Amino acid sequence: MALHSGLLKKGFKVITTEKHFHDHDETWIILSGQGLAYWIDHEGQREDFALEAGDVWMIPAGYEHGSDGLPETGRNSDDFTIQVIYGTLPPGSHIPGHYYVEKEGYIPSLTLNRTLTQRYAPPSLPPTMKGIMFVARGQAELIDEETPRCGPGLVLCQTLFSGLTNGTERNTLMGGNYSRGWPGRAGYQSVGRVLAVGAGVAGFVEGDVVFHGDFQQHRQYFAGPAGAADLILKLPPQVNPQHAALFGVASVALHDVRRANVRLGERVLVVGAGLIGQFTSQAALACGAMVTVCDLNANRLWVAAELGAHHTLVPDADWANIKALGPFDCVFEDSGAPVLDYIVGPTWNQGILKPFGRLVMIAGRGRVDYNFNAAQGHEIVVQHASHFILDDLQELCRLYIDGVMKIGPLIKDNVPFMQMPRLYDRLRDAPDSLLGVVFDWR
Where does 7-104 sit in CATH, by number? Predict the structure, then answer.
């Protein structure tokens, strides 16, 4: 029905109206007065209607209708004023006017036609999708696998970006302590657009861009848990979704620094300037610590210095140059290298930690060996840190928005997902050549 602008400001008086019909629906709006009207339906049955100001009378197409006037006068009241609105005119209709069954010989009626449409249907997903799989030791391939479906407590997402978890994934790829054999896979940094929301899920709607840190691996679609404590975060507009692909490793580092209770003015050493080490350095700086970063890779040390580390250096043969910057309140061992004798000391009073200092071990390894006497002599605390929790992820997002935790400078490789196998060859053969790696699934 078209817009009738200002229609009710007009109207016309009705005294009597002869019986007639239309090819369209018609609506009478009674503006003032009172009167009597009738219709005769398609089966020829008559019905009378007493109308007065404020009434709306709707007459179906093909119903003969008219007004005979009030019984006592034969006329409608002199101020019986109405306005008429025509319904939709089907193709082939007469020009609006009064038509008579006696002359036209037909009674029109409107029918319902349903036209199928996919306008608001959920997106149709392919039956299979691409994903990365470690098919043998040191060998990664793109495979076809079944596309997941949404279910209760889940959100179904199309992956936009995923982030390489360098140390964990190389460990798994090469059969380290995280590996369960082959085929296998890894990856806990996924950024996706929500396609569907399962029953019982609150706080997420179709179209949201989210980060998920619950080991969804690298694949084109994922269906991840979305409960109140699950590792899923709706990304605010200030967050670059490509940067968010590294929110997982950044949250791990933040978790480690919070676990160690780093405090203002403490001397902190970060061993290993990979991604976890870079974010550990930034998180410790945010706590007000004096931060030293050591690594064998001069390029990574340059990045750490650019991101604010107070000291960056390659350890000399006996770590004397590092010991000169200590002793340290806290050491984060992020390298996985056999360096504990340098940190704890090979015997009494030869380590780099203060008495009651903390050693936080993050990098994966099968066994941990250090000199007990050296650790006992200084009564050091040995801590293990694991995966992050939702609160770490939320705080990381806040620190990123505030410019405290920087991710962009650490992204060195943006890789279309079809080129992922070649990237894993680099991870196998030259892991030091990689820092921040983001896979593009768009």
Answer: 2.60.120.10
Q: How many CB atoms lie within 10 A of CB 231?
A: 24
Do 337 and 369 touch, CB atoms closer than 8 A? no
Calculate the average pLDDT of the chain: 93
**What are the beta bridge partners of residue 290?**
267
Helix (H) or strand (E) holding 321: helix 320-323
Instruction: Tell me whether strands 328-333 and 353-361 are parallel, antiparallel or unpaired.
Output: parallel
Instruction: Answer yes or no: is pLDDT of 280 > 90.
Output: yes
CA atoms within 13 A on the CB side of 337: 15
User: What residues does 224 pair with on adjacent strands?
Assistant: 155
Cα separation of 178 and 344, whole Å? 25
Q: What is the DSSP letter of 122?
A: P
- CA distances for 239 relative to 13, 201, 228, angstroms: 65, 23, 21
Give the side-chain half-sphere CA count within 13 A for 200: 9
Residue pair 243/250 in contact by the 8 Å Cβ criterion: no
Q: What fold does the segment set 250-390 form as a domain?
A: Rossmann fold (3.40.50)
| Position 75 pLDDT exceeds 90 | no
Which SS3 state, helix, strand or coil, does residue 28 take? strand
Question: Measured between alpha carbons, how far is 181 from 184 in angstroms, rounded to an integer?
Answer: 6
**SS3 category, 283:** helix
Sheet strands (E) in 198-304: 209-212, 221-225, 232-234, 267-271, 290-294
Domain 128-246+411-440 belongs to what architecture? Alpha-Beta Complex (3.90)
Q: Cα–Cα distance between 278 and 334 in angstroms, integer? A: 10
pTM for this predicted structure: 0.74
Domain boundaries, the chain: 7-104, 128-246+411-440, 250-390
